[in-house]
Design a protein that fits this description.
This protein has a domain at 2-111 and 149-185 and 220-231: 3-Layer(aba) Sandwich (Rossmann fold). It has helices at 13-19, 22-32, 73-87, 97-105, 188-197, 199-202, 204-213, 220-231, and strands at 2-7, 38-43, 58-61, 91-95, 110-112, 118-126, 139-146, 148-150, 158-162, 170-173, 177-180. β3, α3 (73-87) and β4 (91-95) form a beta-alpha-beta unit. By secondary structure, it is α/β, with parallel strands linked by helices.
């Protein structure tokens, strides 16, 4: 199995020292849950792409500080390439910015969350017990960090996860696309860093609540196992 990771940000300062890149975080996450894959990372803000996507079984889009609807040339180019991949029915996974950008390319509305920033540990209702490793699941707790979100399901998509703050928190399109707003790859220290960095934007009450939520942990590895099974082609009607 060969996975192309399109890394849509460049970490700087302490984040770069501690975590290297979003692409690296995904590689570590998948390795922790047993994925024995060949994984390559390409940095899209720097214009990096594989010579051919045909060399890969699946493509993953990471998060980013950028807006999925941005007119920045690298984001416009990414949307162009993702649209072609969707038309070719390439197996794809999107997280946060990646989730939003794929939804946008599929025709869904994407914009600022009316409630402001989503931060810290959030719990979501889980609607797809037919997905791999999800037979008994009714909710999932993951780490969020976003001010944009998908406002309605893309045409032909099926809702996977939601809550009051983020009604379209995850969706699938057939057995080819899986997208999710929160971050299964995040570590608690990374989430805490971002919450503290945005203290003024969040306000004291939300900052404190978001930071305190992290003590409860999250279920990123569970979602990673589901993502691995999805990418490897597990039949969603036969999760075992």
């Amino acid at each position: 199995m060969k996975l192309c990771i399109l890394d849509n940000d460049i970490l700087e300062g302490q984040l770069a020292q501690d975590y290297t890149s979003f692409g690296t975080l995904f590689m570590r996450l998948f390795e922790r849950v047993g994925a024995n894959w060949h994984m390559e990372v390409f940095n899209t803000p720097l214009g990096q792409y594989p010579a051919s996507f045909d060399d890969f079984d699946a493509v993953l889009l990471t998060g980013s500080r950028a807006d999925a609807f941005s007119d920045a040339p690298w984001v416009v180019e990414l949307r162009r390439r993702v649209t072609l991949l969707l038309q070719a029915r390439k197996k794809m996974v999107g997280v946060c910015f990646g989730h939003q950008l794929i939804a946008l390319c599929l025709g869904a509305p994407v914009g600022r969350a009316p409630q402001g920033w989503g931060a810290g540990r959030m719990t979501y209702d889980w609607h797809r017990t037919d997905l791999p490793h999800c037979a008994e699941r009714t909710e999932i707790a993951l780490l969020a960090s976003h001010q944009d979100q998908v406002h309605a399901l893309p045409p032909g998509a099926t809702l996977v996860a939601s809550n009051d703050f983020c009604p379209v928190a995850a969706f699938t399109v057939d057995n080819t696309v899986f997208c999710i707003q929160p971050h299964p790859e995040f570590e608690v220290g990374l989430s805490a860093y971002l919450i503290n960095k945005r203290r003024d934007m969040l306000g004291e009450e939300k900052h404190s609540a978001s930071l305190n939520s992290l003590v409860h942990g999250h279920e990123g590895e569970h979602i990673a196992r589901m993502m691995v099974a999805f990418i490897e082609g597990a039949d969603p009607t036969n999760p075992h």
